[in-house]
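Cross-check.
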Amino acid sequence: MLEVINSAICGVLLPIALGLVGVFFMIKLRFFFIIHPIRTIRMVISGRGGFRSLCVALSGTLGVGNIVGVASAIIMGGAGAVLWLIVSALLAMGIKYAEAYLSASHRRTIKGEHYGGAPYYMLDVFKKKRYGRYFGGIFAIGCILNSLTTGNLVQINAISGFLTQGRLFFGILFATIIYFVIRGGKNRIEAVSSFIIPLLSVGYILISLYIIFSNLGGLCVAFSRILEEAFSIKSVLGGACGFGILSAIRYGFSRGLLSNEAGCGTATIAHASSSLDPHSQGCFGVFEVFWDTVVLCPLTAFVILIADTGEQNPMLLAIHSFGKFTGAIGEMFICASCILFALATVGCQFYYGLSALDFLTRKKLPRAVFSCLFLTICALSTIISSSTMWQIADFTIAFLALYNIVFLIILSKEIKFRL
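Predicted model, tokenized:
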């Protein structure tokens, strides 16, 4: 049943909605981040006060989506999904700017600490706060579910894909490590993210570029496959009624969304914690999508397509693809990268879920229950069906995106930019 619903939402409604809203914000913002990329990057570099919030936001997006999510998209949607993944990122940049901008302009401040996010700008839409509480509350509940599923269950289940035994022990061990990370609160989560994300990103880029430039002939073949399968005329003429194209679009957009979370509203919680002005924070959001989906995801895809191992397990496909060219060292690096990326992501998503819960109530009991539930799912996520996991993730994140972009349109008059 969930698979049928996801096919309709992720295969038709979500790409159309994200495409239209993405084009709307591109036109509204006069394509400034595409026409003036240097100025946009300069805003990111000069905005030092937002570095830690950027790392936290990147922690929520960089993870299995960049490695296992890309591998999953290629397995289920073919090589053509890579093109649509990049297209979704380009369209998502304007959306990401909009939600980061609004999170900064509608942030709250208590004792010098900033907080906020999508539920708060939804609250401010209505003059009568009870309506805002209702609509913001719906999003907050969705955000809590997302932190338990996409931000927790998906991450750990996916990275445990290389284990043939001891999966439950791995889950318990991971949950124990996460406990010590989240126990330190927001500051420790930020510290872990600020250390892991830059280090892993550089290492991952270097090893990926080494493989790609060592196999330029395979790169040409990979490009050919991506273009051919993204617009598969053969599928249409063969009576598939465009299923090949629809599949590529669905998994390209949904896995792109899983990777960069643009439009979902979850990363707005991290963006609201910064002290930067709304425009600078919006530029950080654009950079986040660029770095996550335009830079890192295609690197993973090219390595997988060049290796062409034929593996059908997403985690093993990524590991064996890198290992084919770099041996055991490359395989161990990918395993370690996935685990550390997931560690940063799960810690960040706990912070998102707890912040969303704070919108609903600040009582200690619900916070304690959420924390216990989060850690329990951490421990048990390794033994849940992989197909069920991806269906839950697709549905949750698609719902959040479709719900959030309605409010982005409503508040679009507030969103401005400067060159």
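The chain has one domain: 2-412. The CA atoms of residues 64 and 363 lie 33 Å apart. Passed to J.P. for a second look.
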